[in-house]
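Methods — Computational structure assignment.
A single polypeptide chain was analysed. Its primary sequence is given first, followed by the predicted tertiary structure written as structure tokens.
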Amino acid sequence: MRSILFGAFAALAATAPAFAQSSAPERESNVIVYGEDPCPRSSDEEIVVCARRPEEERYRIPRELRERRDRHSAVSMNARAEALDEAQRDTRPGSCSVVGSGGQSGCAQQMLREWHAERRARRSQ
């Protein structure tokens, strides 16, 4: 009796993957619908999964992108450019160092940059 049941289960298990693969749709579509818009119907070849959002979200940037917070989002592009400028300043002409081209001429420019930075800091307080 056990051998008959074992043989039946083995035959069923052998045909199950072929049956599951042949009946599964080939495509799956994820669609976002807004307001009262109808969701597209699924067919034998395609499964359609719908997510419904409010009508006022239709023409807006998606919330996932709109509220993204990363380490660069709080820093303006101007501040990032200034930080890169400052990091490379010693290797470029106009630096205030004894090494490199135009070393001495950059000291006045460095004093002016520091003065402007102090002035901006005082204004922001």
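Note: DSSP finds four helices and two strands in the chain.
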